[in-house]
Amino acid sequence: MLDQAVAAAAADYVARNPQSLAQHERAAAAMPGGNTRTSLFHDPFPLCMVRGHDARLTDADGHGYVDFLGEFTAGIFGHSPAPLKRAITDALAAGINLSSHNRLEAELAGLICARFPSMDMLRFTNSGTEANLMALAAAIAHTGRRKVVVFEGGYHGGVLVFPPGGSPVTVPHQFVMVPYNDAAAARAAIDGDTAAILVEPMLGAGGCLPGTPEFLGTLREAATETGAVLIFDEIQTSRLSVGGQQAVLGITPDMTTIGKFFGGGLAFGCFGGRRDIMGVFDPRRPGALMHAGTFNNNTLTMAAGIAAAGLLTAEALDAVNARGERFRADLNALFERRQAPFHVTGLGSLMNVHMRGDPGLRKLMFFDLLRDGIYFAQRGLIALSFAITGDDTAAFLAATDRFVTDRRALWS
Ligand code: PMP
User: Fold this and answer.
1) pTM of the predicted model, to two decimals?
2) Does the Cβ of 234 fall within 6 Å of ligand 1?
């Protein structure tokens, strides 16, 4: 019965979205699966969005949506707020591709170091993936060791994925994979051969599952005891407070990586850490480690990043995270009240819907909510932006209530 319901919802989706389908078919001629970003794909084809404003999206068939996906956490500002637009157009007017250092990079570096006590010094990259690759290189060079401890379900970028059993696209470091939130297993894996421990304070792509203070605290202790470099990947969680989740927990890693919204909506990554570790990149030193990248200091991203730092204030972050906490509690209360086999995990404005039983249930929720003008990830990710209002979360709750009421027969 569930299979039939999912098939009917998918057929309805196909009928409603002829322009998105046509776009998908055009794209598939030149890109495998019409796709250049795997996480965006879902059956039968993903929507093609043509416009965004504040928290609103419009697709190629003219349907309007409230954007609850928030560019997989990177879109915290909503779509093209004025300060970001201005910063980017000003930088464009001043001339891009200056073949040199510029004034913006040092300003942005200073603003970020001031937020994260774990970053005495930092360098910029073009993606979060690259930031984590460079952080690992720094830890290996600094320690002279090779082993890297990572966690099941961790996601640190396109070539740093850790599903159970591993992934053929992940770079060939000497990884040792340990269950997440298992302090004893982590403690046993970290030893005098360990160069780095790479961990998300909350599993993001792994389903918004928060790390426990005990687990993350154990990693800190083990790193200190063994001389391993503890790297917090805060590419998602750095929006949970001005100083990221590390400030909330009171745990200072040796290195931190950030990305996404800190680039103000443009391609961005950044890795930083203790002065003695980051010193390996100082080109004035003999034998310095190489870290090149044509666009590492590109003026558009640097300018957008400076404007973004101005928007990522304690007040703005506290407000969006408080809204997220309330919203998640309301969603869980609704699922419980209706005895629907779903629950939501996460922290602050970041959350993921999980289902008990058949994954078809989550697909159905996705299709039903889309019909009601609610856009989020089919895998269940929800990331609130500053532009999401109380009316928007109320609309999501109302659509979810309709879904669990209409579909009750599938689980009761
Ligand atoms: N680490 C985490 C925790 C992430 O969520 C992501 C992106 N989803 C990355 C790293 C990779 O960042 P990017 O997509 O910019 O390479």
Assistant:
1) 0.98
2) no
